[in-house]
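Annotated sample (chain length 600).
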Amino acid sequence: MRGSFYSNTSIKKGHPEEAQPFVIDVQKFHLFVDSDSVPVPLKEKLALELAQILNEDQTWLKNELTRKSRSRKLASWLELQKKQEILGWWNQFCKREKIVKNAIYFTSDYQRSYPFGTMLGAVLHTVQDEKDPKTGQALPTGGLEMLFNGYLKGKPGKQLTIRSPRHPLEGKILEAPENGADIYLTINHYLQAIAESELAKGVQSAGAKGGWAVMMDPMTGEILALAQVPTFNPAKYREYYNDPKLQEYTKVKAVTDCFEPGSIFKALSVAIGLKANEELVAQGKKPIFTPEEWVSCSNGWFPGRATPIKEVGRIHKALNLNLGVQKSSNIYMAKVIQRVIDAMGDAWYRKELLHFGLGQKTQVELPAESAGLVPTPGKLHPNGKLEWSVPTPFSLAIGHNILVNSIQMAKTYAIFANGGRDVKPHIVRKIMKGSKTLVDNTALGLGQEILSPPIVDTVVHALKLVTKEGGTSKRADIMGYTEAGKSGTAEKIVNGVYSKSDNISSFVGFTPAKNPRFVLQVSIDEPEIRFIPGVGRHQMGGVCAAPIFKEIATRALQYLGVEPDDPYGYPVGDPRRDPAKADMIAEMAKLREEYLRHNE
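Output written by the structure step:
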């Protein structure tokens, strides 16, 4: 038997771990005929009766029976019930027609079975119907089946088989077979079902081409769910590989497809600015800015740029750090990074981006991961232009001119969620062969410090404002819970130029904001462009991706049994609302007053 894939049932504290397979091997049977043992006058009659049982073409069966062969396959992957039905008929037929009993016979085999249907299809993949004729081993189509084939495939045994005309098959085991190893994933089947169902509804509502979502434990790096729409159906793998339009759904887009992150990158910009402050103060120098400072945002001209940086929404006269993040100001972020470059230099800034793991593979156990791109000074693009020039840092500040995958962004926000420590994203908890542990990732935890706790506290506080009144992502606000996150919208590059009609729209965040249970990143591919009265442009991440984050997170928190940490934070008119006790309401009122004082 090929090894199985199992769900992470340890996810709920205090609940017993019960084996719940995503994929198992199920015993099936192949039907063969020894056509030389079937008298010629009986072949047509045999073909007729067998065609009715197998629901197969009689002419084809007759042709197979007339071929000179001691072993001709007539049917594959039969259920036990069908095998018993055929044997019941055959015993009567061979007795009635006085034909040798073992003129037809069965061999047993194992076929992949999926208890949850298409769930996790692109991640798991499958094996081809026909096995390697030389080795008898299954041939994976991709995904984890291919990546871990060496563990899964086991070792075939050897059997000496003796056949005689009047006796059934007799065999002597020469070498016992070894079953493959079982792989226990970090993904939980309930959380995966929640993510897939809510993502599917969200993609349909957005009129989008597709989308994907990544849920990760920020303390361990365990990926708890990895959803994708449209999905890949392992049972119909031939259809996907034979249709160029469907082939793209056979890959895991969260690792293979890179995109410009847009405004979800701005949390890194303020964090790097604050880190520059720490280093300068440690050297006895003045910080480049303070979170409380009101930075002028009326002028979008920056060195080396042919055009000014513009705000997506209204123009702001001045913003502090909290409002710069909440309003998703492009100019504020560029001003912060301009000061970073002036004080620390391009090399220092790029080094800090690399510390987050950007521009390099996360090494998550999935095939074809793209490393993304962090521009390199002195290196040329394929078009001959420099990757890094004078205006590059100002584009990077707002998530442009850089490419990331969704696992990288989930990891980045996990660093904010866990207090500033590095974490290794992974999808395999352990690999077991019988009672022997071959791979054990259950002890993986936090790595080196990337950001100090004071920096993390400042950034997380600002991210909490994004989903509140006045923020760009009110639709991500989870009723009864706190959350911290950021939306982003980026134009896709089509034929080498930015498209004005095709976007990747995202929201990434974590909940609860303190001691988060998970990080969740949602990306929507090419949402429909339209305007929603009273809400805004539909294609923006805060409009189309944020609600999906909210729905997945709400159901996931309930499933995990996480107690509400903001039980009074409900909309106006809800009887559970208490402005005096709800999180952030008093601070939001004060922040609005300050904003109006500096901008009206």
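Annotation: The chain has 19 helices and 18 strands.
Annotation: The CA atoms of residues 102 and 164 lie 8 Å apart.
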